[in-house]
What we know:
Blueprint: E1 14-17, E2 22-25, E3 31-33, H1 83-95, H2 98-116, H3 121-137, H4 145-159, H5 166-173, H6 177-190, H7 199-208, H8 213-228, H9 237-250, H10 258-265, H11 269-279
Antiparallel strand pairs: 1-2, 2-3
Amino acid sequence: MSLSCPDCPPNAHLIEDHRAGDVICRECGRVVGDRLVDVGTEWRSFSNERSGTDPSRVGAPENPLMGASDLSTSIAVGFGSSDGDQSLANAQRRSSNNSDRQMIQGMTHIREMSDRIHLTRAIQDRAALLFRQMLDGKTLRGKNIAAQVASCLYVACRQEGVPRTLKEIIAVAGCSSREVKKCIKLIIRSSENGLITSEDFMSRFCGNLDLPHPVQRAATHIARVAKELDLVAGRSPISIAAAAIYMASQASAYKKTAKEVGEITGAAEVTVKQTFRLLRPDYISDPGGSDGSA
C-alpha cells in the first residue's frame, strides 16, 4: 500500500521521520502515516571495531536439515559475560537435541573438506542431506565423524556427476581408508536401489576411452539389464560398468581391450574379464588376443 498526501498532488514528495516513526508530506507538513517500523539495524558498525559479540537479535535462516533447534533462542556468551549467562548457555547446550548437535558438527566438516578440494555448493548440500538421512536412520552410528562425512561426500560427488577418487576424499578427511570404505558400504546397503550405480560412471569412463555416445548408451543398457536379471550379484558398480563398456565396445567398431578399459575405470584387467564372463557365460576368449588376453 503506497502513501500519498490527500492535500497535495499525487507526486508530492514524502519524507520519513525515523525518530518519530512518521511519514510527513514535504509540501504541507501533514503527517500521512505514523507508527512505521524501522527495518534497519539498531546498532552501528565501524571498520575498526573488533568486538567478539554479535549484536544481531536474529538467528540464521531456517535450515530444513535441522530440527526445531535452528528456530530457538541462542544464548550468546562473550567477553565480560556473567556467571549466570555462562550457566544458561551451558544448560541450553545440554538440553539441545543431540541429533542436531551431530548435524551441525557434520555440516562443519563437510564445508571444511569441500573447501580443500574445491567442491561446489550443490555437492555440499547433497552431502549434508545424505548425512542427515544416515543420522536419522542411525546407519553410521558409532563410526568416526570424519569417516561419515568423507563417505557422504564421496557418494554425493558420484550422484552429482563430479566423481572424486577415494584417495582424494581420504586425503582431506584425515582418517583411514578402511573406515571410509565401511561407511560407504553401509550407505549403499541402506538404500533400496543403491545410491551408487554403474550408470553413474558411464559418461566419464566412455569419454576418457573416446567412445561415442551410442556405445555409452549400449553400455548403460547392458549394465541396467544385468542388474535387473541379477547376473552380476556381489560385483561393485565400477566392475559392472567396466564389463558393460568392454562388452559394448567389442560389439562396435570402437573395440577396446580389457586392459584399456581397466586402466581408465580403475578395475583390474582380470576383474573386467571375470565380470564380462558373468554377462556372457558362453563367451570364449579369442586366442588371437582381440580381447587383450593374448
